[in-house]
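Checklist before submission:
- one chain only
- standard amino acids only
- sequence pasted in full

Submission:
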Amino acid sequence: MADRDPGELHAVAEVDDPTATAKRTAKRKKLFGAFAAGVALIGGGYTAMNTLVWSKHAVTDNAYVGADVAQVTSQLAAPVSAVLVEDTRQVHKGDVLVRLDDTDAKIAVANAEANLATAIRKVQGLHATNYGLDAQIAAHAADEGKASASVAAAQADLQKAQIDLQRRQAVASTGAVSQDELTSVRTAYSNAAATLRAAQAAEAQAAAARNAAVGDRNANLALIANVTVDNNPEVLAARAALEQAKVDLSRTVIRAPIDGVVTRRQVQVGQRVQPGAQLMTIVPVQAAYVDANFKEVELKKVKPGQPVKLTSDLYGDDVVYHGTVQGFSGGTGAAFALVPAQNATGNWIKVVQRLPTRVTLDPRELAAHPLRVGLSMNVDVNVSR
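Returned file contents:
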């Protein structure tokens, strides 16, 4: 015992002391009790927060501002004479954005006006011709009646000449009629026959002329039947061509289709644009919305119509927007990607997908604090309502 170190003697004394051992045991129990109480408190707090708060909210910061932008395009092929706006310019619906050279369009309008006037005069001429053809038919009918009378007279003359010839031929053998008289009677008969044939030919000619006039009138009538000058097909076609020319002329002035901000202006003065060429984009910032990309496991309680609170990275937490869940996209972002994921492989790993959820915003709040397309947003959906 004399050879032991003083520290060793103290340790042996503590081991042998029951009081010290009891103290250490009590201290350990207190520590374990405090730890258990802390764990229980944390668990209870988590459960309470999840029940009272977290379970009633769906939150994501994977959300971005969007808008249904308007593409400003040309509907004509023409040179650009003036560009009146620049990028970032706020415009209103109907404001003039671009002017195209209207020389060709004005010439087209003048040509269409001339074609319309020509068509109107042509149809008016058809109506006048119809009256003239009616008069011709009446005249040819009179000529036909006159020819019929001439035929009747010629037939009577022929019958008389035939009777005279028959009488003289019956007594010619007795010498009561001279050869000169008989020859004269025969000549009169031949002349009467020729006159009848000429009268019949004239009658046929008059009938043919009347029939031709009737045909011309019917053909002319087919062009104007049941229509006036104003609703004649040719006039309507010419008027439609004029209206199209006027529309093309009006399209040389390109106006803003909506209220918004000019973005991506691509047109320059002197450039010759083609139909469908994109000139610029107008973003309707006053009608912006937010697409929140929630994980599929977070959407169980999210329904259309639920209220939403949003903050932007642009303005910070001091500016709070209020919105409403409008609906859900028809597919996940991966489903509509240019190169969709192919998971039919041996090393497939499940990836939680995100479904775009459309949130509409309060227009008054947007007017007070405008947003721009593509800005990041923080979204909090109250799923308890």
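Reviewer check: The CA atoms of residues 131 and 217 lie 9 Å apart.
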